[in-house]
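Hi everyone, sorry if this is the wrong subforum. Our group has a chain we'd like a structural model of before ordering constructs, and none of us has done structure prediction before. Sequence below.
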Amino acid sequence: MFGCFVGLACLNWVASFILVQMRLLFILSYVFISFSFEAIANASDSFVVQRILERYTETLGGPRSAAALSSLSIEGSQVQDGTSYQFSMRKKRPNLIRYSLTVGEASISCGFNGRQGWQHTKVEEAVTLEDLSTDQLSALRGEADFDSPLIRHLEKSWNQISLVGREQLGDTYVNVLEVKKFLRPFVRYYLNPSSGLILKRVQIHPDGTSGLETQYRDYREIDGYQFAFKVENRIGDQLVSLVKIETIEVNPGLLSFYFEKPNN
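Answer:
Right subforum, don't worry. Here is the predicted structure as tokens:
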């Protein structure tokens, strides 16, 4: 992700590049049981949607186990343009996040403590610390939510889930659910009807066209929860990145001060 660093010459490039890539990397949060509360949209499909979501919840050990997940610590690498970059991500309920990228002697960390978003950049001995802009903060705040669309879906009436239908994905026919926010398409999930696992997620633009497509593979059980250890991001036919998870720790006991803006 970061090229060859030559002192301060790359510092501004690194700082801007990380924010462009943040959406791609934080897509991990949608694999790692981000729960949210949505409402079923179509009454005629409500029973089918309910069954699909119940099956998905079973992959998390049921509603009580899902609610018991309060924090995550995730480490791994992302391969992009033939180069591998190390990352770490920490998330805590309800909306705390800290994300770090490292390559060579350069690193960037972004965090949100529920109120304030910040970015810490280090290239060799050069260090910068700054608050995120309004747009950057809005994007990071959305990623910081521990909750995502497929659990306890009846508790937020301003969102909706509807059944689009069934599609063939590889050798499997999958159930396709569409999530709308304030009646506008937001994202589609492709779930294996047998296992209940999410196999693909596609962002939907306001005009209805498809955006970033994320495929989830190599699911493994960690402390009773299912996590995808390989995450592939595409835009159209172009491979954007391949994320490989190395370690996941469930409920590591993260303290809230970890997400505060550093002193330097």
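For your construct planning: Confidence is low (pLDDT under 50) at residues 1-43. The chain has one domain: 10-259.
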